[in-house]
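Memo to structure team: turn this sequence into structure tokens by end of day. - J.P.
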Amino acid sequence: MLKNEKAIVVFSGGQDSTTCLFWAMKQFGEVEAVTFDYGQRHSLEIECAREIAGELGIKHTVLDMSLLGQLTQNALTRSDMAIEQKEGELPSTFVDGRNHLFLSFAAVMAKGISAKHVITGVCETDFSGYPDCRDVFVKSLNVTLNLAMDYEFVIHTPLMWIDKAATWKLADELGAFNFIRERTLTCYNGIIGHGCGECPACKLRQAGLDKYLQEREGTNQR
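Reply from structure team:
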């Protein structure tokens, strides 16, 4: 644990970033959260993040990144685009440059408050093939940020090598299982908690939950 250290969590109010927020609260003495408004389909995502941060007593900043939504063509910033994934292509929900910019701006913000730790919920195990969720990208950007600002940042990715079932397990271990199950927004259609059940994000979340609950039940029966 780094109780004398400060950290910033890149926070969307979804399952993964909320799990990371609880993880950071256990690890660091001072934690802040930053949410990016990039013209996403649902402003409810920002409100959800704000409410969670407020309830947990976490200082929360929303940064305007609307320019990103103007530069890219994707289903997360355009309601007239279908959420789909064609074989051999990235999903229509991929936002070019999103994690690159989010982590870079979070790092600038971190240096401003003398924090050296940036936490993000990206994952290379259960993911949609987004190139900016890969470990090699995060490690490369970590080096670049250190060089760019002459500052020793550490980008933490607690979920990088675990699947969604293990993410639910981590939430349970952190005492946040029910909170994350009921209060977070993962759904591409903007429905908090269990979501719509039909979009790719909801299906991935539910499959992980079902797998974890089966594993937990089996453990309890032993």
